[in-house]
Amino acid sequence: MKKATVFLSCLVFAMGFGQRLKREKIHQLADGYFVEGMLTLREFLQLPNIGSNPDNIDLNLAWCEKAFQTLDFETEQLVSEGTKHLFAQKIHKKKAPTILFYLQIDGQPVDSTKWHQKNPFEPVLKECNGNDCKIVPWDNLTQNFNPNWKVFARSASDSKGPAVAFLQALRIIKAKNLRQKFNLKVIMDFQEELGSPTLPALVRNHRNTFSADAMLIMDGTRPPANLPTLTFGARGIATLKLTVYGAHKNLHSGQYGNYAPNPVFHLSRLLGSMKDEQGRVLIPGYYDGIQLTEDQKALINSVPENKEELLMTLGIAEPETVGETYQEALQYPSLNIRGLRAAWVGNEVRTIIPSEALAEIDMRLVPETPAERQIQLVTDFVASKGFYLLEGEPTEAERKKHPKLIKIESRIGSRPFRTPLDSPLGTWLGAAMAHVFGDGNYIRMQSTGGSQPIAPFISELGIPAISVRIPNPDNSIHAPNENLRLGNFHEGLKMCLGILTQQYD
User: Which of 245, 375, 403, 474 sits a CA distance of 20 to 30 A from 264?
Assistant: First the structure.
């Protein structure tokens, strides 16, 4: 990309006025400011941050605005389709290169009854041995902390922990009067867990505001090796809701069993036909356009991976065979049944034939498999199985004529993106990681399996993007008992300091 080349050329100019911080100094600063950073994270985690709650957004936005203003950043609240976002910037020199940082601030909803603490928004420090955890007083942080201790709270890893590591690194730079190496811009997203629905319009309408040479994403979990990680892409996401209809209403299974069809069987046969026993999607054309060369595979598989350990960690006997390795599997689109519903189960189970059966599907997408195409492929496949596609609830005429009725609803979320592993931006970031941790002590991943709402920035601004990964792989994001390992936060400080003070050689 031309902008990336200009970016690195400017870095030589902007960073040539002094040597970068020595490795020992970076480690020393991270040690000295670690406790302050953890206490800041504790304070931030106490703010509920559900993106569908406007009061939560306002609360977190105010906290972030104050934090960046204290660091001498200019801040501006940007509204897109009624949703607030926060933008902050600190310009060093107008002609210097600019990096745009993306921070996710919101978190997934919580079910407090499933957490092993009273309140998911009251951070708890714990020492864990497997699933056996004991509480550690926060005052113990001022002593010699154990890097394996974890802080448990919603958004500890996804993604307030990485956001605070970035903030704390900026605090250190200001406190020690270190030279700012490039212009900084920051966009804070308060509805990432809702799919960032208003972000594309925001970027489109504020293209000049976000103008930059590169983008770094402070979000995402590390792979099982738990080494400092740079991730060069993310899969997109599209979702489908399939509703299969039976009789007008639930029927008594004794009176109508063997006569009235059960829509659960129609749905289960349909879902079962979508994948083979090895996990490969059987929908025609689903993988079209994806070709991994041997050179690409070599780069992708340079990530440390122990298959046996991974299977043991996941508690499964064997993996699906979409790709020869875990890393290769992430380069293909997935098809996942994320939820099923029909009638009742457990203590509320009853002897009925349900009137409808529902399946929720998510598809993780790669650049070669656009959402519109994949949705159409699934829709065509369903029709090929003899289902009549409804536009709404079935009419009486449709019920009389078609034995297999289905309604398909779809939604497109984040788009996929991919930055080449050998890109100039990747080389620059790799140099920062090698400087801080040493060669071979960090990971470069081509893609994460999850999704990030970054595509609008890439398409509108024409810049490369890479994710800086701090959280531990066993962090239970999106689930009860989400956590962040203290050693990972400590390394996150070093990662951010290394990047923010990196001199391009």
Answer: 375
